[in-house]
Amino acid sequence: MTKSEAERKKVEFLLNLELNSMEYQIPSSLTFANAVSHYRDVFAPRMLRSSTFSTADGHLKNHLEADWKDVPMEHITIDSVNEWIWKKRNQGLSWVTIKNILRTMQRVLSSFSKDKKPPFSQIGLAIPERDKLQMKVSSRKKISFSWTQAEQIAGYVGKMETLGKKRREQYATLFLLAAASGLRASELLALRVNDIDFRAGTIRVEESSDQKSKGAPGPCKNAAAYRTVLLHDPEGRKAMQKLRLFLGIAPNSTMFVFHSSRGNPLLETNILNQGLYPALDALGLEQAGMHAFRRGCNRRWELAGVKPAIIRQQMGHSSAAMTERYTGEIPLDDVRTEFSMKFGNKIDVLEIMETGAAA
Q: What is the CATH architecture of 147-328?
């Protein structure tokens, strides 16, 4: 081969590789695995609660590292992410789960980048419109427990023979207080005796129980979660009376309200499996967790006409959008009650008139 032929071959080779294309990117020596290492060793210990990191680490180990660890950082784009999400969707993962996993991926990448921004936005995810609509519908139909249901649950738990007397009282009081206050389960389980002011009818929230660290108390979820909740409606007063009877004369003002025999916060998994789930099954109610009491409280306050800003503060929400989302689909019985209160017997009169006219 002559020198000119060799030069021509070299040019053809480079053209075939598209090295002179504006779209070509030289692969970086840094990969997703490097970002994960920085996230685990540097970012998470400084910036995240242990429970938050535990959830994220599960996403990394179970879904992300196997597929992305050797991928150069520059090759992680919205196009490559969209190809990946359909792979996970075909494996049976829900869109909600996929989006949660991607939030972890974005945090890992942004913590490692110079500008602290992820290389893709979830706005560009290729999720069909019908699936987006279905996610919104499903969100509206999340289970919530009304105050009446909460009383039924507490009443049943208070008589369960599978639980000891102390545990029955704990769980029954806990469920009523959850329904009356709207506190998160982690906040309820971190309550101390001196957080309760029976004279003022308030509960102060200053800690959160980290259930992934054996219930250890720690910081709250966000700035809005640090609050004082006022329980001055009939349901709140009833729950506070139940709580006063349950506590009696507490020997230590700093002890946890709902504690184990060793004085540690109760574990939510035990509360669900020993108390809530058996009660729901016996009462014929749909199975749900502690958050269903919180959603029911939010809805009750809204239907009572409490101003949104007050509800948002009571719930410890960081945005008005979150408070609106908690209302969900209002049960038909509540709709009937509202119509009856607004219009009285006018509806019955109209129905009688229409029936007579038809006859």
A: Orthogonal Bundle (1.10)
